[in-house]
């Protein structure tokens, strides 16, 4: 890896490698800088207030009254010493969640004190966030399940995080793919780690060649001008996260060509926390080849 960064700026033709078919020359110095910039933003996002490293709990609600606080007798137990013993209740009734705060407990939302508040309604466009000292939480919906996702901005995971090991940068894994557009109504059923299945819109399929072999990856809407894909490969049982990795990529050009850069393959949230509900790659996106590019396995979750 270090040797790559000591190289002078070179122009390399990726089509000279065995993995990719590309016609565009790559400025290796600029490309290295681009990948490093992407990686640094990736790290900042993981450690940021909306990142995955500060997650401290995911508590599924049952219908009716759910008590919460730091006391062990509560239905939902928040971290010891960081919340009053009995902070209040969450009332789940017919898909609506209402928070009722115990007297004397200073829970806020956007800095304003809360005593009673609807914190989830199926018809609402936004779900409010609640705060107490260094803790923050909100309701998540997964199919017919409703849960409290808790953040701790002093979570030990933030302190213990030492970065993510990666494969050495290899421009040969920056592939030019063809995009086979699908019918606008096409969806693919995706399973998450909870075993739940939900249809995701799939605008088409990426067709790539690795070492002369053709592979196909179904793509999904990624928002804006991007697509998103989830993939598994033969390295999952060795050096990469066992449940696969994710990739974002720009939408295709007028000729239907699209760049898929496996150097930007990243671990799903479940590699960093037990409190995520990651979607899993569909079986057709499991590649029978080792993708030795992008992030390696981070750790111990799931």
Structure description:
It is a single chain. The protein has 302 residues and is mostly beta strands. The chain folds into 2 domains: 2-47 and 164-285, no CATH class; 55-154, Tumour Suppressor Smad4, CATH 2.60.200. It is built from 3 helices and 21 strands. It has helices spanning 2-6, 28-47, 156-160, and strands spanning 11-13, 25-27, 55-60, 64-69, 76-77, 88-93, 96-101, 108-109, 112-113, 116-120, 130-132, 135-142, 145-152, 174-181, 187-191, 197-201, 204-210, 213-221, 226-231, 245-250, 257-261. The strands form 6 sheets. A 6-stranded antiparallel sheet has the order 20-19-18-17-14-21, with no helix packed on it. Strands 5-4-6-7-10 form a 5-stranded mixed sheet, with no helix packed on it. A 4-stranded antiparallel sheet has the order 3-13-12-11, with no helix packed on it. Strand 11 and strand 12 form a beta hairpin. The chain is elongated and about 65 Å long.
